[in-house]
Amino acid sequence: MDYRILIIDDEENLVKGVKYNLELDGYSVDASYDGEDALRKMDSNIYNLIILDVMLPKIDGFTLLKKIRERSSIPVIMLTAKGEDEDKVKGFEYGADDYLTKPFNILELKARIKALLRRTYDLVANKSEIIRSGDIMIDVPSRKVNVDGRPVDLTSKEFDILFLLVTNPGKIYSRETLLEIIWGYDYYGDSRTVDVHIRRLREKIEKDPGNPQYVLTKWGVGYYYKG
């Protein structure tokens, strides 16, 4: 599969360097230096992954991420300033799939891109069924979810978590195990990442997120799906 990536960052030298290195690996890469141009490109092109900086002119990265999530569940890697943990948590709450702190090693960025694309597009590559569980219906090939007959927009990570739990009902996954399976062994995040995604997933699929009936917590152990 040929992957197309959009880089959104106002640092011209960084963008040129990343674009050059990714194109050497066979990716098709477009660049935007502000949020408005990025939205125009997304209106006229189909992308498989977005690299998004937090600090952008015209439209900041968080606002742009919200706009992206209104139209797509495309995987998004956010770039944040060193030590800005609040930005990382906020990014996950807004629907980011991964983050990388500037300055970063291009090899680490490549590894994260490869892992995220593989998990997003290969997880259900050989599946062709519709999964139904209670009010939840998962169209596996198209990665679409309906709850009680209404479409629910999940990010790629939220979909992957739901798919894993639904297809393994009753099995308890620790935060560390979910990080390994969904984010990959090379992921350097912490358990807050999982908690944020589980909370967002519950808000979207549960009638009462505070008293969930599908995605449950085994206190001190992890999360599981009750079919």
TrEMBL record:
<dbReference type="GO" id="GO:0000156">
    <property type="term" value="F:phosphorelay response regulator activity"/>
</dbReference>
<dbReference type="InterPro" id="IPR016032">
    <property type="entry name" value="Sig_transdc_resp-reg_C-effctor"/>
</dbReference>
<dbReference type="Pfam" id="PF00486">
    <property type="entry name" value="Trans_reg_C"/>
</dbReference>
<dbReference type="InterPro" id="IPR011006">
    <property type="entry name" value="CheY-like_superfamily"/>
</dbReference>
<keyword id="KW-0238">DNA-binding</keyword>
<dbReference type="InterPro" id="IPR001867">
    <property type="entry name" value="OmpR/PhoB-type_DNA-bd"/>
</dbReference>
<dbReference type="GO" id="GO:0005829">
    <property type="term" value="C:cytosol"/>
</dbReference>
<keyword id="KW-0805">Transcription regulation</keyword>
<feature type="domain" description="OmpR/PhoB-type">
    <location>
        <begin position="128"/>
        <end position="227"/>
    </location>
</feature>
<dbReference type="GO" id="GO:0000976">
    <property type="term" value="F:transcription cis-regulatory region binding"/>
</dbReference>
<dbReference type="InterPro" id="IPR036388">
    <property type="entry name" value="WH-like_DNA-bd_sf"/>
</dbReference>
<dbReference type="GO" id="GO:0032993">
    <property type="term" value="C:protein-DNA complex"/>
</dbReference>
<feature type="DNA-binding region" description="OmpR/PhoB-type">
    <location>
        <begin position="128"/>
        <end position="227"/>
    </location>
</feature>
<keyword id="KW-0597">Phosphoprotein</keyword>
<protein>
    <recommendedName>
        <fullName>Stage 0 sporulation protein A homolog</fullName>
    </recommendedName>
</protein>
<dbReference type="Pfam" id="PF00072">
    <property type="entry name" value="Response_reg"/>
</dbReference>
<keyword id="KW-0804">Transcription</keyword>
<dbReference type="InterPro" id="IPR039420">
    <property type="entry name" value="WalR-like"/>
</dbReference>
<feature type="modified residue" description="4-aspartylphosphate">
    <location>
        <position position="53"/>
    </location>
</feature>
<dbReference type="GO" id="GO:0006355">
    <property type="term" value="P:regulation of DNA-templated transcription"/>
</dbReference>
<keyword id="KW-0902">Two-component regulatory system</keyword>
<feature type="domain" description="Response regulatory">
    <location>
        <begin position="4"/>
        <end position="117"/>
    </location>
</feature>
<dbReference type="InterPro" id="IPR001789">
    <property type="entry name" value="Sig_transdc_resp-reg_receiver"/>
</dbReference>
<comment type="function">
    <text>May play the central regulatory role in sporulation. It may be an element of the effector pathway responsible for the activation of sporulation genes in response to nutritional stress. Spo0A may act in concert with spo0H (a sigma factor) to control the expression of some genes that are critical to the sporulation process.</text>
</comment>
